[in-house]
Amino acid sequence: MAARADRHALYEQAVQGPEAEVGFIDRVYKKSYGRVPTLLREDFCGTSIAACEWVRRRRGNRAIGVDLDSQVLEWAEGHNIASLTADQRSRITLLNEDVLQVRPEPVQVITAMNFSYMTFKERSVLRSYFRQVREGLQPEGLFICDCYGGTEAQDTIEEDRACDGFTYIWEQADFNPVTNETLCHIHFTFPDGSKMKRAFTYDWRLWSIAEIREIAHEAGFSQSTVYWEGTDSDTDEGNGVFRPTTKGEVCAGWVSYIVFE
């Protein structure tokens, strides 16, 4: 089963929730500016699933996806974009460019999800990225990124979760507390015993919320809001509901959004 499986399709099923992500974008933008946005740029877009959901959401919506990996953009074209209507396809543009240098038209919202910006390990480089994002926004614009942490984020662990027809495994293989560099892998296993080892590998720096906010403010953003995920009382896991907060909870693992203006 592993030999026939598509790693991008497995990732989308296990990790991504584009409907909830787009709903969150609409909610926080309307809260700031009194209306829903229409023009989105998805940095590190990968399979472009969020950009596709964006153009499906409303007829006036347009999306720009940016990614340096030409292979994953080809996959996006052949799968997610191919599934759109002709009108929807006309409202989405994919750019095989570096997010540090790309200069498309200014947009209302830029996102950097799935912790992808953590590939920038040096403060100066992350600040350059945030500055480039700030310059790519319209005057009434938002930048939204997610982040993660918790007591287990600095440990070497494996976590598995059953999905439809396979098991998703998140491995934190290494962590350096001196530099906060972390090496993580995603694996998939299947009912027949076959495995897709290291389907994805991430060599990141684990930035804290405080660091991310400070660097973004140095890059020109005037304010930021942290949206903390609530906890499901039955499972003691995240419930997918994110609310603004100035104080987080000490726990084994958490995921949050940060919204910059």
Helices, strands, pairings?
Elements lengths: L6 H9 L2 H16 L5 E5 L5 H9 L4 E5 L3 H12 L4 H4 L2 E4 L11 E6 L10 H13 L1 E13 L7 E7 L2 E11 L4 E9 L5 E11 L3 H10 L5 E8 L6 E8 L8 E7 L1
Parallel strand pairs: 1-2, 1-4, 2-3, 4-5
Antiparallel strand pairs: 5-12, 6-7, 7-8, 8-9, 10-11, 10-12
Helix pairs in contact: 2-3
Description of the molecule:
The protein is an alpha/beta fold and 261 residues long. The chain has two domains: 2-149 and 207-260, Vaccinia Virus protein VP39 (Rossmann fold); 157-205. Helix content is 28%, strand content 36%. It is built from seven helices and twelve strands. The protein has helices at residues 7-15, 18-33, 49-57, 70-81, 86-89, 123-135, 209-218; strands at 39-43, 62-66, 92-95, 107-112, 137-149, 157-163, 166-176, 181-189, 195-205, 224-231, 238-245, 254-260. The strands form two sheets. Strands 3-2-1-4-5-12-10-11 form an eight-stranded mixed sheet. Strand 8 and strand 9 (195-205) form a beta hairpin. Helix 2 (18-33) crosses helix 3 (49-57). The longest helix has 16 residues, at 18-33. The radius of gyration is 18 Å and the shape is globular. The N and C termini lie far apart (46 Å). The relative contact order is 0.15. The mean pLDDT is 97.
